[in-house]
Fold these 4 entries.
Entry 1:
Amino acid sequence: MDSENQKQFVDELLDAGLARYSNVAPRPGLEGRILADVRAEPGRRSWFVWAGWLASGAVAAAIILGVLALMRLRTPPPPTVPVVARGGVQIGLVPTPRPMARQLAAPETWHGRPGRVHGRDARATAPRQAAFPSPAPLSEQEKLLLACLKLPPETQESIFKKGPDVSEELEIKPLPPLADDSEMPESENDR
Amino acid sequence: MAVAGQVSLSEPFPVADTAANEFEAAIRDHSRLVYRIAFSVLRNHHDAEDATQETFMRCLRSLRRTVVRDWRAWLARTSWRVALDRRPRGREISMDDAAETIASLRVAGASAEEMAGNRQMEALLERLISALPTELREPLTLSTVEELASPDIARILGIPEGSVRTRLMRARQILKEKLSAVLEGGHGQRKPETIR
């Protein structure tokens, strides 16, 4: 009987304890605090959106600048030298051939076999050209020539005929006499 | 009609008008339930209030892409998850002092109701529940929230209703055995950590 009483008491105690376990009331004003939080949400959210956009823009700009700087470093403009015709007239600019990897490497620090370029070094220092052969800008003379070729044939003929006419008969004038004839040896013509 | 102390949502609201009205009603109708669920897990008023606010904020954010049919179930489930995320790990409650106090109250002839209201008894029960296996502790904890019946608990935990009832019976049986041991003074024979 005592055991039954004990069992019943434990049952009641457990029921009462569990009933009280979560039977609590929140502090007054909980609804108001929740609603205030809810209302503050759009401003907070828009700030986060703006911050996100700003951060994304900054990262994108940094990436673009980095890529541009890298491209500029890896492909410098090819150096040009003037090409001169026989008459001393410059007819254009031609890019100079880039130095080989071996030439770029410091000779005093390289201890490998002469005449051999390691693949990695060659790849690292080999010139990289956007187009092969590299385009060179036209000289003034070439531009004028192209402009002439676009003109009608009659105009072209008149332009080109303005130069000296080599077809005319050459007139050979006698040379002026030398200052002292006595000192000159006899030539074949005088005989 | 405006009631004193009641806040209206007529000010700019981050969702559409209909959803705003429903959400406002949900806050008024279910904030107490949400709070109690959070308290049943966290056992602290301040943490429970924080969890309640977080629950409603989470619901507000997902309201834009969710059509809510059962606000009560949705909020209860969200509150349960938020509270579990915030639950402190490894919190220990001294059981020896509590057991001695309960035993002395029993000797003094206190009723079950009087003993249940004792702080030491609350601490003892909390310790006993926290020592239960998770599969038994979770349904028992939810069952202490008076607004939740077995179907609600089953929906929150995602298990069949029959399983909820079975687990509740097993959990209560274990708690009864432990309480009997405490009341008979058997608590001193074993260390608190070994009580299962």
Note: Confidence is low (pLDDT under 50) at residues 1-10, 188-196 of chain B.
Entry 2:
Amino acid sequence: MSDPAQFESFVLAYQDMVFSTAVRLLGNDAEAEDVSQEVFVRAWKHWDDLSGSTTAGGWLKTVTRNLCLNHLQRYRARWKMFSDLAREDDDGEARALDFAAPETLDQALLTSDQRELLEATLPKLPKDQQVALVLYHFEDMDYADIATHLGVSLGKVKTDIFRAREALRKKLQPARDSVGV
Amino acid sequence: METDTHRARGRHKPAMRCTPCGVAGSLRGVRRCRGSSKLSAAMKPDPKDPLAVWADQALRQLPARRAPATLAPRVLAASARQKTSAWHQRPWLDWPRHFQLLSLALFAGLVGAVVWFLAPHADAVSLANAKQSLAQTEGLRTVSIAVDVLSTLGSAMVMVLRSAHLWVIASACGAMAFLWCSCVGLGAACWRLAGDFR
């Protein structure tokens, strides 16, 4: 298979992963598509190394994540990552551990409607909460890594993730009640 | 789960797809999604935190978002454009290494040549003539005064540099660098603190 044909297969195989990562971090389809294109253009530049590599997926994911974070920091003045840092009650871990409502949280099996609701709710979260949540749950980064990547305090990351989870739970709770989960 | 592009081209069949990541499994050399299996095992949320466990389970059920049908054609067009464009039409950072080095050498040579040709003509008579013509032109007297002030300051600096010992100059440069770094560091620290207490 020639290089362009192989690259086309590569793009088709990974485009959903790259786009998913981008759209969950950016919360905007058009921007995610632009970033995804940039990721694959970079992959094309490094095609000699990537074409036979079994770690191409990891490479793409890392590049997508970094480009998204750069994009957010560079082009979004309204995204105030650095403006609303720690508040007085910012011990996110302690609050998260205090939180206990196991009777309502023991089941996380979602219906398709709930999944759609969850997907629609993610981009509506405050941007710093959304990014931290996505990096933790989808990108498998730990709190310290997220704090380092975003240049914010560990407490802020924990608080943001906690608040984002709570917002998702509150959003889904009526839906869960209505379907009797 | 085939996209429009898949169907249109009819060559890529993503038989197995990692749900959270959306990586199709039929690509040569890609046996499994590496992004969600190995790492997720190590990154389970604290089981004592029911909210975290619930959120993790709920979010991981979300299927991968489908890339728009326009993405693949856009990427392929961009890569084709990149492949066919000449090296000098690309950004300088994408030039071949030897052309980058050559261009740097040429630029340095050009700057050197300009300095080498102009330096002998920058004598006192030429400067005085230039100043006189500036002063005679209405509206450029302010410029002439500024040139006077700057040239006086420059002469003073040259005199100081010539008379001072090397260690004095080095110390002054060191002090300036220290002050500069202190300003930058202090500014960064203030920025962080302001953010922390906001």
Note: Chain B has eight helices and no strands.
Entry 3:
Amino acid sequence: MSVALPRNQREEHSSNVPVIVDAAAIVFCWSFAFFLLHPVPTLWYYPLEHRWAFEIKPDGLAMAWYGRTIASITLSLVGSGIAWVMLRRRPPLAPRIQDGWLAAMIVSIVFVVLVIVVTNVGDHPAPEPLPPWYIPR
Amino acid sequence: MSNIAWEEHARLLLLLHAAGAIVLVGASTHHFLIALGYLRGRFKVRLGRIYAITVAIAYGVTFLLGALVYPSFRYVVRGLYLDRYAVWASNLFEIKENLAVLGLAMAIGALILSRKMDPALDRHTRFGYAAFVFTLTAIVWFNVVSGLLITMAKSV
């Protein structure tokens, strides 16, 4: 059973919130980059067939974006949950440690942006076969 | 027609997506100026919180509308046209959509920090908040310009 913390300790607890947010952002950035770089099983959506499939490689026109987004957000929530459990009853972390988390978060953001750009620039996607009803406009 | 989810509403959804982006570009730019002020010692906390929630709501709505129109775009626009005649636009779209997910995380982070911090007292949080807001504003501007360029090439 959880017991409410005294007011002064609640303030200390809330002062670790920025570090928890940093942790969530770091997990989000690295998981999103991981899903872009490595062929792991992902939730794919097949727009022409209206179905979802959990697989590494699709057989037909499919979209990994939804699955990648859901997976990264879920992992980020798990990461922030773990950080919250670890830090909720602790006094505020030392400023140097907080700065370390901030620096790690900024590096993670830069990294995932680079991964997003590098994995898409110069890509040569295969066009879909033209259906009989299609009239180019 | 290809019987894709939301295809019959694709143009309306895209129009609403664009309207959300207009709100977003204004709100996020103002939010950027507030966060810049925090780094320079000017603390408009109430205004910062208002812009943080405005950006978060506008971002969420715009993101959702984009996610709904995406299947139509993926097949009719990208699969049948851009991948064949304008590969640069296909690649730009992929960058845009992946950055949009990162932007969603930044919007949520900025919203939480805006409610929890006292920028005059908390240096660490002030810089973290600014990192979220600056990244988010850059993504919003990049995505708005990219979206315009892509729809100039081909739209739903």
Note: Chain B has a mean pLDDT of 95.
Entry 4:
Amino acid sequence: MKLRASYGVLTVFFVLYFAARLFFSLQSDYFNSDTSYFALREIEHIKATGKPLIHDTLSYSGRDFVFMPFYYYFLAFFAKFFPEVIAIKVINSLLASAIIPAMFLCINKLIKNTKIAVISSIIGSLSPFYITMTLNDITPYSVVIPGMILIFFFFMRLDEDIEILNYLIPVTLAIVISSPVVFIVILALLMFFVICYVEKIAIKKVLFEYSSFFILFFFWTNFILYKTAFQKHGISIISGNIPEEAIRQYFNIDIGQTFLSIGIITSILGIYSVYKYTAGKKRKDIMVFISLFFSVMVLFLARLIEAQLALALLSLSLIILSSQAINDIFETLEKTKAAKYSKTIFFALMALLIVAQGLPGIFAFPQTIKGGLNEKYVSDLIWIKENTPVGSVITATVQEGNLITYFSNRKNIADTNYLLADDPKERLSDIDNIFRTSLRVEAVMTLDKYGSEYILLSEKSKNEYNIEELKYSGDNCFNIVLESYVKLYKKDESCKVKSYEN
Amino acid sequence: MKTEEMQKLVFCLIIFISVIFAYNFFRLKTDNGLFTYDEYKYIEKAQKIISDNYSGKSINENILDPLSIVLAFTGEYKLAMRLFPYLFIVINLLLLYALSRKAHMSENHRIYGMIYVLLSPLFIYIHTTFNLPLVLLPLILTGTLMFLYNSPFFGLLFFLLALWVNPWSFFVIATFLLFTFQRLKETRKGFEIFAMLFIVLIFLLLKGFSLPSTENFLQIGKEYITDIGAAYGIGVFGIISAAIGLILFLRQKEKQTAQVWFFVLLLFFSLYDKFFLVFFDLVAAYFAGFAILKIMHGNWESGILKNYVTLLLFCGLVFSCGSYLNKSYKAGAIYEERISIDWVKTNLNLDGNLFLSHYDFGYLISSSGAVTFTDKDYYLNSKEKWKIIESNDIFMSRDLRKVNSFLKKNDIRYIWINRAMKNNLIWTKSDEGMLFILKNSASFRKRYDYLGVEIWEFLQPSG
């Protein structure tokens, strides 16, 4: 395949991929996860005031937020000129589609085989984890993951051409101020230097220079922004101060299913590459991705990063590493008597890869959209806004917290934004208690603790707590004020527990 | 000293004094109070000496605390506490500069090291408050310089003064003396290592071969790094620049390992006692200066990256400094607490009745004439710290019998609670532990409740 032809195929696939993402994400007027609605509030606040929402009176009934603002500003800029949700979905899809050129550049640089590079980048873009995470959500990962892959490409190029810094530095700045998860890159770079030092691989000085710039810039920005959070949470800031129970839920992963989603073939070939280039042949460029693979693995096993993000990065790094293995196999094949069949074998293998690896990704598009918010559910949330007093605290599952603040414009007890939140562990356990307990006194006491008078029983809470209705709701203390797609219970004002005084 | 170098030094000095002056001025203006909790230790003692008309008895009682005696003799001790730091800024900077010249540091290395020192939160801390290292630093630096200038008699004199101010400074003196002898090349090869091991052994012997009290890595960070929450300490970017300097220093072909050993030795002492951190910071300044020197004057393949890295490093140092100034500027003792102490002086019977509070506020409460169950002195110097453990246990207890018997046993009559104690320092909830008992038991009477400060009286139950 000539270079131009491969670029043609790549461009066509990029357009198709972008169109598919857009098509599926525009199927729904809403976003999938609750965190998108936190992002939407931020974007709307930036659009209206030019400043991010730092102190919020609704989340946790009042708390401060801390986050990297660049991504939200970027989307707010477009949302200012075009219809908000559409602009966000289009820009987000475009950013997330950048994974294709980023993967292509990396793989092509690594193996110098455009055919394999094109196919591998297509497979990479169809990683089910990546699609699930970025298809219909406002998440900085849409820009951070392609950005990280691009940084690794520029890093490899830096070894040959110092002028590449003109691109590398702006990408680094943008990525660092988009999300703190780029510490994965720092870990990968450090691991890369350690491996190169141990294996006595010569490294150009400029790579050290760039890495020191990256690390210093990362520390500087993060210490300025997350200083208060660091003082409050200490080392658990890395995992976002997520309570142990919530982490357990995030990491409740089916190993077999995960392995299938990453892909059996790419996993085997990728791990083969890791073995080959650490135990035998030493190559600097491939070490970059081996380091990435190990860094993500370490963070994943230590439960220091989100499982979805870790799995997406693991699958992408394994696809890059497996493309090296495929290239090695064909180079060896060319030297054997089976060389005349190499084309046939190549197409067969590629077809197998696309079927085995690409199909789960293709299925992930409609499946992800199916998991989105329900129209009726949203209208019920809007009903709450119109029919409950301003300042009410609504008790709901933690995954619905951001939805209540966005659609209902009411306070929640807790949501999934745990950083800088007060007592998230206690709040989570209290919410659990409100839904699980059969004792009215206990429920009333817990609700009073947070000044909450409303309990939202949705499909989510029904499934999570395996209940059809609140066990203590059969008297005058709790009245149903909305019975639609969700049930909204209101605690009667006279329903109080006398305080325990001497 | 070259004129250009002199100009740079004077410039640094003026900037630093201006920052400290502005800091004190604004702190005074916002009514945060001029004095920190720890400074009340000197206020209390100086007050006592003055009220006893400088009697021999009161001087003898405070003979091991010469700073309080000196303050008392100034008469206007509060004014002296604010003016002394300015005087010591000039003295300390000049001494440091002279020492850096004797340490054969290049001109740029000296200047960069000095910039690090001036931006160091620790250096700012010792020059914005009245504290032990403020006086110890010039004494030890002068002593060391005297030795380097071959005046051992005067050197010893200054070291003896330092030992009087704080006996633990023996270990700093020993380390600095080792440095001096090494610099004068009066030691044999290997002597430094032997001497250092000997010093460590004595130190451990005095500490009862115990481990540092800080429990884990994060705890060390929270106590020693200002950016992570330490009341005073080193900044994150100070640590980063010193670490870079140390790595670059070790990579040199011709290097003197002595500096590295001193660095390790002072770090070791600092882990046991924060008092040593000031001196560790000086050695860290040597390496940080070295890092900045190598970064700014080294051969970089990329000029852009060199500029960015230098800029980031300086921005980081400025950030740590600014962040510390901002934090300490808001630190207590705040107005609400000071007026509660004034109230204590005039409204409570303090004879033989102890106050219970967090040890951080011990000196402040004592400045009213009251006696406290624990204070910072006890926290820092007690080996077992049983009073701290017991009081923490009582603060978190809801067992009325246990609380009553503890208070009775220790003659505690008053409990002083401020906002910081209610907001995470001890309690996180309004009815947690002892707070619940205070509000709900007849054994306690609220005597004072104004602007977040509460004083409770323990009414001893009969029988």
Note: The mean pLDDT of chain B is 87.
